[in-house]
Hints:
By secondary structure, the chain is of the alpha/beta class. It contains four helices and six strands; from the N terminus they run βαβββαβαβα. It has one domain (3-134): Flavodoxin domain (Rossmann fold). It is globular, with a radius of gyration of 13 Å.
Amino acid sequence: MKFQVIYFTQTGxxxxxxxxxxxxxxxxxxxxxxxxxxxxxxxxxxxxxxGNQPGKIMMEFxxxxxxxxRNVALFGTSGSGKGLEVQEMEKAxxxxxxxxxxxxxxxxxxxxxxxxxxxxxxxxxxxxxAKQMMK
Length: 135
Ligand SMILES: Cc1cc2nc3c(=O)[nH]c(=O)nc-3n(C[C@H](O)[C@H](O)[C@H](O)COP(=O)(O)O)c2cc1C
């Protein structure tokens, strides 16, 4: 199967997770600012959380592309909470009739919070998630 990993990052945390996932899948993680959606295969989209929302550019990317019947997996990093960034992307993709295959999120450092995150354990979990998506 083909894979494409696309991320939005503001402070680098989600990029690190995207790269861990992409390396497991044997592809390069792509910045949403320059990525073009592959015509087939599984798409993995990731974002940090900013004011309880995923990155605006990621939401625009979802809005501006066709996801009907596409297989999509989602990942995110956030300062707190239960992966609201992933849930919000999922909502937008459900509205576009995508098929959500899996979700992963972990903490990301933010000012003095979550120092060192994402950490080695987060990357291990992210890679496990990637492996599941290969099945
Ligand atoms: C401008 C800004 C706003 C943020 N707002 C929230 C928030 O509302 N809730 C939260 O849990 N974390 C918040 N965070 C923390 C980020 O979600 C966290 O650091 C995340 O890992 C950032 O991902 P990135 O490094 O890929 O940009 C915020 C961070 C920034 C920079």
